Amino acid sequence: MNTPENTAPWHPVARSADLRPGANIVAGFAEGQELALWRAADGTAQAWENRCPHRSVRFTLGQVIDNRLACAYHGWQYEAGSGQCASIPAHPAMQAPRNVCAKTFGTAEAAGMLWVNLSPEVPPVPDALGGAVPDGWHFCRTLTVRASAGTAREALARNGLAEGPAAPGWRGRLGGTETVALVLDAQPGLAFIHLWTEAAPGSAAMKALHAAARQLRTEIEALPQG
Ligand code: FES
């Protein structure tokens, strides 16, 4: 999808259904930024730098307590939304330091995915995100490939998928099955491809897509890396 110049992209980092309110923390990546993805008890999705601002321990080791994320090391708790330190349980009488904040990023939920924008000034969520996956389609799998996102896109084009002019994602047939591929630039030399399809779970078409996805990964990782 073409984006206006100077507009930071929205990255498809995880499937929305993988984040349960007030429950789990999922590790994510976008453009080399390591993320802690979670959902507050009120349902709002959160994408934070995966480092506690106290002593840099990964937030993914911690736990969600209602609308807060609690670090695993010293237990400091940070508020959903602002990332502000809200409580230091070891010193309940002490005021939480106002200047200690987790680094937070903009999020959007559309087409069954959680999208993250790394820009400090989060741009408006484009309507096009909602059209990335047709209504009623099913999630197949996320393919992890040891290659750049550019190489992954190149391989999708070689396999006859075309980038949508109006919505993000690559659309076409993989293994004979109608598919949308959402490519995530995770890290240098690492890309994720989220595959969605019209095929029903457990169907022969879905199995064909799984087989084609494995073949696609082999093909991508064999390509020269730019
Ligand atoms: S490192 Fe997170 S609370 Fe100390």
TrEMBL record:
PROSITE patterns: RIESKE (PS51296). Residues 10-116 form the Rieske domain. PANTHER family: CHOLESTEROL 7-DESATURASE NVD, IRON-SULFUR DOMAIN CONTAINING PROTEIN. Its main location: membrane. Keywords: 2Fe-2S, Iron, Iron-sulfur, Membrane, Metal-binding, Oxidoreductase, Transmembrane, Transmembrane helix. GO terms for molecular function: 2 iron, 2 sulfur cluster binding; metal ion binding; oxidoreductase activity. Coiled coil: none annotated. It is found in: Membrane. Transmembrane segments: none annotated. InterPro entries: Cholesterol_7-desaturase (IPR050584), Rieske_2Fe-2S (IPR017941), Rieske_2Fe-2S_sf (IPR036922). One of its GO terms (cellular component) is membrane. The lineage of its organism: Bacteria, Pseudomonadati, Pseudomonadota, Betaproteobacteria, Burkholderiales. This is Rieske (2Fe-2S) protein.
